Amino acid sequence: MDLGPRRMTTEARREQLLAFGRQHFAEHGYEAMPMDAIAERAGVSKGLLYRYFGNQRGFYMETVRTVTNEVIEITEPPADQPYDQAFRVMVTRFVGYVQEHGAIYTALVRGGLGSDTEVNELLDRVRTTTMSRILERLGIHQPSALSQIAIYGWVSLIENGCAEWTVTGGASHSQLIDFFISTLEPVLKVLQSEQCS
């Protein structure tokens, strides 16, 4: 992918480099090649990458941040639909995102930087945002520990299930969505029973 010299706005160039970063890190991971090799592959100067992202870690982290922000944005459940329909929309959008961007998604969820705290915090932000949205739609403002564990487990099931799906296949888009929605039902029962107790 040659991103060589062209007259572009700062923001447009940055977005172009992040699109390259998404492809590069999906294919090669974080430590596969040094910054000068990354710049050569992108068809830009190393100085340009340093100008926009500081260093190789900065470039990687900004790529991770971009992906997680996109997931958070597209999975907000619609406010004008009943919660069950809204949650299906949320899951459908998530599965669709993974289907379209499977390589970088799987690289981040399954690879990333291992136990790197900053990477894990960005990935966990997707989970906790989803949890908060579900609780808010259900009108639960002080969830018990069990409720939080149940929702977090469900969100993690979707995350890891989708990562496995990108590698092994074995189910259609609609089958995956139906499965995830079916596994939400017992979680909702836990939440609703706690509201009534």
Structure characterization notes:
- The structure is a single chain.
- 77% of the residues lie in helices and 0% in strands.
- The chain is mostly helical and 197 residues long.
- It folds into 2 domains: 52 residues, Homeodomain-like (Arc Repressor Mutant, subunit A), CATH 1.10.10; 134 residues, Tetracycline Repressor, domain 2.
- The mean pLDDT is 87.
The backbone outline, from C-alpha atoms, is: elongated
Number of domains: 2
User: Mean of the pLDDT scores?
Assistant: 87
How is the CATH topology of the largest domain named? Answer: Tetracycline Repressor, domain 2
Provide the structure class: mainly alpha
Oligomer kind? single chain
CATH superfamily of the largest domain: Tetracycline Repressor, domain 2
Rg over CA atoms, rounded to whole Å, is: 19 Å
Structural topology:
Layout: H1 10-28, H2 35-42, H3 46-53, H4 56-74, H5 83-100, H6 102-111, H7 117-138, H8 145-168, H9 173-196
Give a brief outline of the structure.
By secondary structure, the protein is an all-alpha fold. Helices cover 77% and strands 0% of the residues.
Jot down its keywords.
197 residues, mainly alpha, Arc Repressor Mutant, subunit A, Tetracycline Repressor, domain 2, 77% helix
